[in-house]
Amino acid sequence: MTRFSRRLFTAALGAALTTGALGAWNAPALAQQPGSVITVATIGEPPTLDPVGTTSDLVSIITQHVFETLFTFDKDWQLQPLVASALPQVSADGKTYTIPLRSGVTFHDGSKMTAEDVVASLDHWTKASPRGKTVAPLVESIAAKGADSVVITLKEPFAPLTALLAMNNGAAAIVPKSVIDGANPLKSLVGTGPYKLLEHKPDQYIRLVKFDGYASPTGPASGYAGSRVAKIGEVRFVPVPNAATRVSGVLAGQYQFADSLPAEALGRFKGVAGVQPVIVKPFGFPLMIMNNKTGVAANQKVRQAVLAALEPNDMLLAGFGDPAFIAPEGSIYAQGTPYYDAASAKPYGEHGLSKATELLKAAGYKGEPIRIMTSVQYEFLYKMSLVAQAQLEAAGFKVDLQVLDWATLLQKRGDEKAWDAFFTYHTFVPEPSLITFINPSYPGWWDSPAKKEALAAFNREMDPAARKAKWVELQKLFYSEVPTIKIGEFYNLAAASDKLTNYTPTPWPFFWNAELKN
Amino acid sequence: MFVYIVRRLAGMMVVMLIVAAVVFVIARVVPGDPAAVMLGASATPEDIAALRTRLGLDEPLLAQFLLYLGQIARFDLGDSIFLNRPVIQALAERSELTGLLTLMSVGIAVLIGVPVGILSAAKRGRWVDQTALGLAMLAASVPSFWIGLTLIKYLAVDLTWFPVAGYGAPDASLGERLRHLVLPAIALGIPNSALILRFTRTSMLDVLGDDYVRTARAKGLPPRVVVLKHALRNAMIPILTVIGLTAAVMIAGAIVTETVFGLPGVGNLIVSAVLRRDYPVIQGALLVVSAIYVLINLTVDLLYAVVDPRVRY
User: Fold this and answer.
1) Contact B134, B194 (CB under 8 A)
2) Residue-level pLDDT at A18
3) pLDDT over 90 (residue A84)
4) What's residue A37's pLDDT?
5) Contacting residues of A for B124, CB less than 8 Å apart
6) Residue in B with minimal Cα distance to A34
7) What's the pLDDT tens digit per position in A218-260?
8) Does B129 lie at the interface with A, CB-CB under 8 angstroms?
9) Are A286 and A319 in contact (CB under 8 A)?
């Protein structure tokens, strides 16, 4: 080796050793985390931190620590009070809700919550929230009754009201009157939750710190309900769009919790000390929304033929790979939830090519292409759509599968002439009226006379047992009119550090009551 | 020289105006609605229409374009629809990370590519040269995201020598932030070093074949002096060009590496803006990136005069 090349080799070796030293120095510090901070890796940057105007699940995961609603749900998805001190007193005609409020509730700006703040918050919700706007036409008045309760008077009975008031997105968040500006976004992010917003650097982190003035509801913790104690000093949400990086980060200890991991990552946690996989059930269900208004899918028999042609288990396996993460469940609500009913979902399992072909013939199908929109941005939807395409073609459909980016799909689905079906998914919601395709103005436009009547009867029914019966009727109609194909259930994979204790797996993970062991 | 610089800067203005117009049109021609993306999949058409009005997205295109041109004239790039802050602020917040990552990765690419390229040229045909060319081909073929994921697996997860992702805690020191950039810089630097290596080798081979180099050898000068003092300087111009181009591309082109390592850089900002249809960010960021590209090219051209005294403007 010449002297020149020896010097070059020495320089390169020195650079490598320096890089290694830079990494190895402080390595023990990197593996440790400060005792009162947890870092939570999420799927990306939330579009806003105002929970009122959006139904984004990512927004609710973060902001539910900061904002609270009058009610919430316990582990059995039953309604419980949160900012309210008790469940509402409902008049015999179902039109008047008297809601008692807890005393001593303090906002993050130090001011005490009053009945006027609650009235202003609810009024804002009816103007700014997609959920509130569905309620607004039914509201006669919202007013304070004394200093410690509010009264909502409706024009007609509407049983889903309290569930809508309990949702943590499109949320009826209780905020100071001073931060409300008509139907516009909140002027500042001040709530009543166990955590308050300290700092937000878009695409880097959102820092929530313990609010010392927090007034917790009483009672044992159950789901989102009951006592809430901020035992961790700071919850730091970091957007990590790449799923593989979220997996690596939680394995390395950089994150104490990583949400929405790919099903195939489950094997990476086997035998690994310090990290546990968390499978969340129920979580969501993929859908093939049909266009009930215009085009080839507006024909009910064509939609029934689609249902008969599809083999949901094959689609679910293609989308998720691991049977541990799926269930070919036809009931719109999964087992273990109040609205589960298998009997009325029987047509889900009745599929077959010959049945599909007969239905197509009876529909007078002449070979028009069925335009199906899908997106690779949600890989599981894309994979399921490929299987669906093959199954439909085998049954005699001519399929035009359009692969679009998500933003384009969202825009195009608003044009009733542009599509016949599109793939999407729905996360679990505790109340049926929160399901998107139940809303007649949601793309798909399921608005038959029978459905209008069944939905109105369901919404007017105040008795829980009778409501369940009416939901079953609506589900029967769902399977006879087939406005949408429910493909099945899927579960979410998350991962948590062993140091994170007392954590409750839920569709919208929360970290009050959780602790970080040293 | 001064007149040359002024002429180049004037040309830059024309380039940026063209970029501004093209980006504006393309961003709006592509289907997709920022209001729909912001409100989520369960938004109704009425909600979307209301938000579009609030954001001014329902104004005629010409009105939006004139407003946009007026803002640019005042050096105002508008406000991000999603980030709720001025585009300039969003870019400034990411400039430190992108600047440091570019410097580090270009540094790694140059530190590997130039010396190995020189050695490869000096030892043409020998095992050193063959090995260097083989490694360069491998480095150019392997995708940067694969390099990144491999580095994460072994150096971050298994050995915990480096962080997996991100740019450090809110109160992280500069040293800690630089540590977060080591693996991404290596992932970016290795593929780019291959290009620099090959350009350096080719340029050096051209020069090493010249008569004056033969004369220098004949005079008995040591090989190191012949290569580094006499040949390299004459070979520097194409090498400088490719280094400049590499740096310019990395400003916004490190998107895959930024995604793998969860880095909130400029590339990530642009791609997120495209996916969300955040028009002001798409327009503003591309305008700034094109300006930086032109400035880097100008700097490289000026450096020619430093490296080669025969070059005069």
Assistant:
1) no
2) 47
3) yes
4) 95
5) none
6) B169
7) 999 999 999 999 999 999 999 998 899 999 999 999 999 999 9
8) no
9) yes
Structure token pair of residue B280: 């002001």
Backbone Cα Rg of chain B: 24
Q: How far apart are CA B255 and CA B274, in angstroms?
A: 12
Of B164, B227, B277, the CB nearest to A249: B164
Give the pLDDT confidence score for residue A233 in this predicted structure.
Answer: 96
Closest-CA distance of chain B to residue A497, Å: 14
CA-atom Rg of chain A in angstroms: 26
Of B82, B85, B259, the CB nearest to A47: B82
- Distance between CA atoms of residues A509 and A271, nearest Å: 24
CB-CB under 8 Å, B157 with A5:
no
Is the pLDDT at A23 greater than 80? The verdict is no
Q: What is the mean pLDDT of each run of 10 residues along chain B (313 residues)?
A: 81 82 81 71 70 78 84 85 87 91 94 95 93 93 91 94 94 94 95 94 91 88 86 86 87 82 90 85 87 83 77 70
Task: Classify strands A149-154 and A96-100 as parallel, antiparallel or unpaired.
Answer: antiparallel
Widest pairwise Cα distance in chain B: 85
Name the residue type at position A92. Answer: A
Chains A and B: how many Cβ contacts under 8 Å? Answer: 169
Residue B313 confidence (pLDDT): 67
Distance (Å) from the C-alpha of residue A184 to the closest C-alpha of chain B?
9
What are the tokens at B213? Answer: 């180099």
> Which amino acid does the sequence have at B240?
L
Contact A483, A443 (CB under 8 A): no
Nearest CB among A23, A54, A240 relative to B39 is that of: A54
| Confidence category of residue A140, pLDDT binned at 50, 70, 90 | very high
Instruction: List, in order, residues 6 or more apart from B70 with CB less than 8 Å away.
Output: none
Which among B111, B152, B268 has CB closest to A15? B111
Q: Do B42 and A244 touch (CB under 8 A)?
A: no
CB contact under 8 A, A4 and B224: yes
Give B51→chain A minimum CA distance, Å: 10
Task: Say how many CA atoms lie within 13 Å of B276 toward its Cβ.
Answer: 23
Answer positive or negative: Cα dihedral of A141, A146, A147, A148: negative
- DSSP-assigned states of every residue in A199-236: EEETTTEEEEEE-TT-----S--BTTBS-----SSEEE
C-beta atoms of A202 and B90 within 8 A: yes
